[in-house]
Design goal:
Elements (H helix, E strand, L loop, with lengths): L2 H6 L4 E4 L2 E4 L9 H18 L7 E8 L5 H12 L5 E6 L10 E8 L1
Parallel strand pairs: 3-4
Antiparallel strand pairs: 1-2, 2-5, 3-5
Helix pairs in contact: 2-3
C-alpha cells in the first residue's frame, strides 16, 4: 500500500463484477520510461490480486507531464499491451502530486 492510499483513503484496485479498475498509479524512477514501467507493473500486480492479467486489459490511461515523454511511455505501453491492444488515452498534464513524478497510469480489465 502506498502512503497516498492510506492518507487519502482509497484502494489500488477495485473489482466490481467482472471488471477490475485500478487507481492512478505512479512510481519513482530516473526517466519517464522507467516510471511507466514500474507504474504499469504495480497496476498489473493489483489486477493479478483480483484474478486478472495483462491479457484481460481493455483500457489504459497515461498522464505525462511533458509531450517529450510520449514516445518513450508509448513504447513501454506497447511492450506490455501491444498484443492485447486495449483502448487508451495519453494526456499531457500540468503536474502530478509529487514534482519528481513524470507519469501516472490507470488500467482497467474485463474478466
Amino acid at each position: 500500500m502506498s502512503r497516498w492510499e492510506s492518507l487519502y483513503g482509497y484502494q489500488r484496485a477495485v473489482r466490481t463484477g467482472d471488471r477490475i479498475i485500478t487507481s492512478g498509479t505512479t512510481a519513482p524512477g530516473p526517466t519517464a520510461a522507467a516510471q511507466a514501467t514500474a507504474a504499469f507493473g504495480i497496476a498489473l500486480d493489483a489486477l493479478a490480486a483480483h484474478g486478472a492479467s495483462a491479457s484481460d486489459v481493455v483500457r489504459t490511461r497515461m498522464y505525462i507531464t511533458d509531450r517529450a515523454f510520449a514516445d518513450e511511455v508509448g513504447q513501454v505501453h506497447s511492450s506490455l499491451f501491444g498484443a492485447v491492444r486495449p483502448v487508451t488515452t495519453m494526456v499531457v498534464v500540468a503536474g502530478l502530486i509529487d514534482e519528481s513524478l513524470l507519469v501516472e497510469v490507470e488500467v482497467e480489465a474485463q474478466l
